[in-house]
Amino acid sequence: MRPVTHVAAGGLYGISDASTPSASILQPLSLRQHTQPPPGVQQLGNGATTPAGDALKVASTVIATGGQQYIRMPDIYPDFPYRWVSWDDWLQKVNKMVDDRLAATSTTNINGWEIWNEPDGTWDTEKAGPYNDGWTRTYRAIRAKDTVTPIIGPGTTIYNPTFMRSFLENAKATNTLPDVIVWHELSQGWQNIDEHVADYRALERSLGISPRPISINEYAWPDQVDVPSAALHYIAQFERTGVNDAERAYWFEAGTMNGLLYNGQPTASYWMYKWYGEMAGNMLPVTADGDLDGIASLDGTRKIANVVFGGDYGNNTVRVDRLTGFGSTVKVVLSSVPGSGRQTNVSAPTTLSTQTLPVVNGSVTIPVSNMDARQSYQALITPVNGPTTAYQQVYEAENATVVNAQRRTSTSASNGGYVGGIDGSADMRSQSFVDFTVNVPSAGTYSLAIRYANGTGATSTQGLAYNGGAWSTISYPPTGAWGQFANSVTTSVSLKAGFNTIRLAKGSPFFAGGTGFAEIDSISVTR
Fold first, then answer.
1. Which of 156, 206, 307, 471 could serve as a FRET partner for 120 with CA atoms 20 to 30 Å apart?
2. Which Gene3D superfamilies does the protein's record reference (predicted)?
């Protein structure tokens, strides 16, 4: 098991401006990572009449929905495939993009410079020279101005072992290794993703390169990306193989979250991603059975198992294990969304049945009749009387948006995980914080209890802000040791009904900075 981090919730050019789509329609999706065009974007994609998606202009919406952004630098050009002009022109553009980002001192969620997109098909070797040389030259130009923001690449159209080996050998020799490894999973389908990840990891080891996070920042072909069960197959592979993040490909107009919305309203796939976005606690291991595959999570605090599956026709059964503590019988609500694709709005999932089923040796077997292979299905499993609380009250730090800090494990932590290394306070590129997206049923004052560890031997402080409001200071008295969580501090917050963003920060824009150090296990939000 590993913490729920919604690795495949995100998109390429999914957001076109600060209000399209609205943050409110995106928040239920728990979006993690986006790839957006650079400041000054000139690219006109998929029927657009004006450039859209400038990373700095959409930053407020991305932050409000819990996400971060890679900036795709070559989309400063108006054409695709890109039309190379000259090295002077390109480096001038690179310098301007970096300068614009550095001037945006309140924008914290830029976590990667993508030097080039699909160099195996769009790099002009005749005019620009070998791509590996171009990578090195551009990498050094970025680092001359920005020594902090990760650099990602190579961003090939497919996983190509020969291209990747040549790229990595050059990058290692020139001290320009990317911080995040990127390629696309499009025409090759989902079936080979596990083999690609394994091959890449073996290549790293053979070259003596430390493991890099893997980003698949474009996934699924046009006939797959907006079919709920097909997109689910990709998500299942990404969760299974441990990639860092993955983004839906840009086949539809900007501002639709890559087809999850049509005319501003949800499609069937939106609801499948919402089921994914509602996962909390730990991801459960899933074993596929032929074409039937899925994803699952277990929120041990509320006693909810959330299972999303699909891909097969006919009558099937799904077995869910690790239900110890749920009782001798469980309530199972089975729902579905149609395989209707891109241009059909769907107002909500369809509830197929509500059953009480026996738990045998910690497992429940769920019959599912008349399955449609294009549809996706959800089995929501709780004790017979429902979850332990009417709404989620405990939020694990390792499930939250973690910026310039690290997810770590400890048997003392409430879900086995916590966030440490919340140490940075220098500027918007290195400031450290954790953003919790909490959903409460009504507006009012809530008690906020923060479970923490502070091994400094003295009181430490962090900043607390919610929904972009004013900062207050949280003080953490010393505890026994790092990674040991038996202490909490409590304060109050005034929340609106629905989604709220709560930030705990060592450093953040408009905050002077915390003192000392503290680790965060979880927060509890109660009326």
1. 206
2. Galactose-binding domain-like (2.60.120.260), Glycosidases (3.20.20.80)
Cα 294 from Cα 504, distance rounded (Å): 33
| Core vs surface per residue 393-408: b (16+ CB within 10 A) or e | bbbbbbbbbbbbbebb
Instruction: Give the Cβ contact number of residue 457 at 10 Å.
Output: 9
Q: How many CB atoms lie within 10 A of CB 264?
A: 12
Please say whether the beta carbons of 244 and 215 come within 8 A: yes
Q: With pLDDT > 90 as the criterion, what percentage of the chain qualifies?
A: 95
- Nearest-CA neighbor of 183 among 227, 118, 108? 118
Phi and psi of 239, rounded to 5°? -65, -40
Residue 334 — φ and ψ, nearest 5°?
-105, 125
Mean pLDDT value of segment 183-203: 95
Q: In this structure, are residues 242 and 197 in contact, taking their beta carbons and an 8 Å threshold? A: yes
- Please report, for residues 333, 338, 345, 372, the alpha-carbon distance to residue 348 in angstroms, rounded to integers and kept in the order given: 15, 10, 9, 18
What does the pLDDT read at residue 88?
A: 98
335-388 pLDDT tens trace:
999 998 889 999 999 999 999 999 999 999 999 999 999 999 999 999 999 999
Average pLDDT, the chain: 96
Burial class for 223, CB neighbours closer than 10 Å (0-12, 13-18, 19+): exposed
Tell me the two tokens of residue 78: 């108006």
Instruction: State how far the Cα of 327 lies from the Cα of 5, in Å rounded to an integer.
Output: 28
**Nearest alpha carbon to residue 417 among 257, 219, 281:** 281
Query: In 3-state terms, what secondary structure has residue 434?
Result: strand
Asked if 34 contacts 70 with a C-beta cutoff of 8 angstroms, the reply is yes
Going along 384-478, which residue ranges are E strands?
394-396, 401-403, 406-409, 417-420, 433-440, 444-453, 460-466, 472-476
Single pTM value for the model: 0.96
Residue whose C-alpha is closest to residue 197's, from 234, 170, 223: 234
Distances (CA, A) of 275 to 238, 271, 495: 16, 6, 24
- Please, which residues have CB within 8 angstroms of residue 386's CB and are 6 or more apart in sequence? 331
Helix (H) or strand (E) run with residue 196 in it: helix 193-207
Angle, alpha carbons 216-222-225 (nearest 5°)? 55
**What does the alpha-carbon distance between residue 288 and residue 405 come to, in Å, rounded to a whole number?**
34
CA 285 vs. chain centroid, Å, equals 19
Say how far apart CA 203 and CA 216 lie, in whole Å: 17
Mean pLDDT value of segment 462-480: 96
Q: Which two tokens stand for residue 363?
A: 């497992």
